[in-house]
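Revision sheet: structure tokens.
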Amino acid sequence: MPTLTFEGETHGEIVVKVRRWLASLEGDPTGQLSPAEAITQGAEVTKEALRVIASSAPGPIAQSDLIKTLTTMGYKATDASADALMSSLDGIEEATGGSVVRQVTEAGRKAAWEMNSTIAKQLLRSLRP
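Predicted:
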């Protein structure tokens, strides 16, 4: 019989992984992420990377208190950074009614398009004899 396992240091991490898995089953489009979603996903990727790095160490080293402590410190630093970013983002949105976040998002899309246009022009120039 097939089994499914989710690993996490806290209940919250496991809940996030289960929700992500359920969303993938429902075929939810992943399209544009909100700034808050990007911060949360970035923090989860960082914590998963810390877990993979810690577990890839040879047995006695991976089980040492030093590695466990460093991994825990990495988790705490990641959570603190994500919380600080979310608080800053909330403050900016409250102060501006969300207009700054929308303007930055729109400017980012425009910059990406302009960058792609510039690269395309350079590519065309290099193809001409």
